[in-house]
ATP-dependent DNA helicase (Uncultured archaeon GZfos26G2), 249 residues
Amino acid sequence: MDDKDFELILKTGESFFVEFKEGVDKSLAKEIVAFSNSQGGRIFIGIKDNGEIKEIRITNNKIVVFNPGGLVKWLKPEEFGTISKTRNPIVASLLARTIFVEKLGTGINRIRKAMESTNSPAPEFKFYEHSFYTSLFDKTMIKGIGIESQETVEKTTQKILNLSRKELLTLLENKVGSKLVETVGSKLVENPLKIVLLILEDEKITKNRMSEILNISDTAVDKNILKLKFLGIIKRVGPAKGGHWEVIG
């Protein structure tokens, strides 16, 4: 299976032969047995039911890849990318003989060289006890926004979270004018107001990201967005992947 095959599977979605799983849980064993007792199939772990890859987040100027499991215990963060140490030598040896591994122990350096070759900022690695994050920055991804601009967006996002309803309405009025606030302001509580302001800061923000920022469920985000659409405040332009939000002021 190559990249095109994988992209097609993500677009097509689940079927009798394809199953998406966000993580490893008790239901995974049932899915494996079910496929084994039928005509077979493929189970993709780390992908939501809607085809969204759980471990990858795309923002205005970076792609963040989440790596569960963390570093192997005998590898220090400062050694990351300079030496190769395997968690399971037997599995690593077997994979090295397949087509799925290009060259064992060279991935991090190749990432760094690839970013350098496109004049992009160096990748950033953050390490935690049970995971680590890889951030790939690109100043040209959306409207030429740079790292400094993205940091400003994130600071503004934090500011939005701490505002009262009255302050949110004032901020919204400053951004889109008084007409919208006068028309629908009285019909909105804090969370939908925050969603509108988040969209104004980042037109490509995902529902999943809204859920994380506001600390509410995906269902709550969907309900608020549905209300905002019904009131004619926001609309979605383009497909779920690759499209963007617009505030109708």
Residues 141-150 have pLDDT under 50 and may be disordered.
